[in-house]
Design brief:
Helix content: 10-25%
CATH superfamily: Nucleoside Triphosphate Pyrophosphohydrolase
Number of helices: 5
Distance between the termini: 26 Å
């Protein structure tokens, strides 16, 4: 698996020279402040690979690069939130599961961030010009054969989203202070192909966030907590 992570990826921003005062967003709550502080710090730790909760991964030859966007609304009249989706039941993989907008790198994408922004625009109608990318996390190798890089983007509060019905059944927002609380995540298990697998879970009202999405968000929470 180490060989998987050593192979060259598309160029990723390091966050060098990024300071909270340069982000042009007022800081009004601790969760948002901790997020900005994380991406103002050196990038080495946050770019380390993320472990899949089931500790599964394919061979390096089968990996295909992908990117997901973690859209975080800056504080306005309400609390800062993270935008998540419920995948359509018609999809061949992970149907009905909660995910972040994203998908495979395409030939026209300049980099990983561009791929994440394009997919978010396609899936939830988030205009890419409304997103301020502040950095990335390290990649996660998935059993499905993708090497996924999370891209974090700040968006204005109060945006309205439009789901692409082929891919997205629902769009909802989860408070950033819940997402960035490492203690809110719990370990559980599920049966896949007759084998018991471990996973992480995060519950927000009626939504159960688990699997790779929960692992990515948990990694962000741990890093932001310092």
């Amino acid at each position: 698996m180490d060989d998987v992570y050593r192979r060259p990826l598309l160029r990723r921003p390091t966050g060098a020279g990024l300071h909270r005062r340069n982000l042009e967003f007022p800081i009004v709550n601790p969760a948002f402040e901790s997020l900005l502080a994380l991406f103002a710090a050196p990038a080495e730790e946050r770019l380390a690979p993320i472990s899949h909760p089931a500790r599964l991964g394919p061979g390096s030859a089968s990996l295909r690069e992908a990117a997901v966007l973690i859209p975080v609304s800056r504080p306005g009249d309400a609390a800062s939130n993270v935008v998540l989706t419920v995948r359509s039941e018609n999809l061949r993989s992970h149907a009905g599961q909660i995910s972040l907008p994203g998908g495979s790198i395409e030939s026209g994408d300049a980099d990983l961030a561009a791929a994440a922004l394009r997919e978010a625009e396609e899936e939830i109608g988030l205009p890419r010009e409304q997103v301020k990318v502040i950095g990335e996390l390290g990649p996660m190798a998935l059993p499905s054969g993708f090497l996924v890089t999370p891209v974090i983007g700040l968006i204005p509060p109060g945006l309205e989203f439009t789901a692409c019905p082929r891919e997205v059944a629902d769009i909802f927002q989860t408070p950033l202070d819940l997402i960035l609380n490492p203690e809110a995540y719990v370990r559980s298990s599920y049966i896949h192909a007759g084998v018991k697998r471990g996973t992480l879970e995060l519950h927000c009202e009626d939504y159960r966030i688990w699997g790779a999405t929960a692992a990515i968000l948990h990694r962000l929470a741990v890093l932001a907590a310092g």
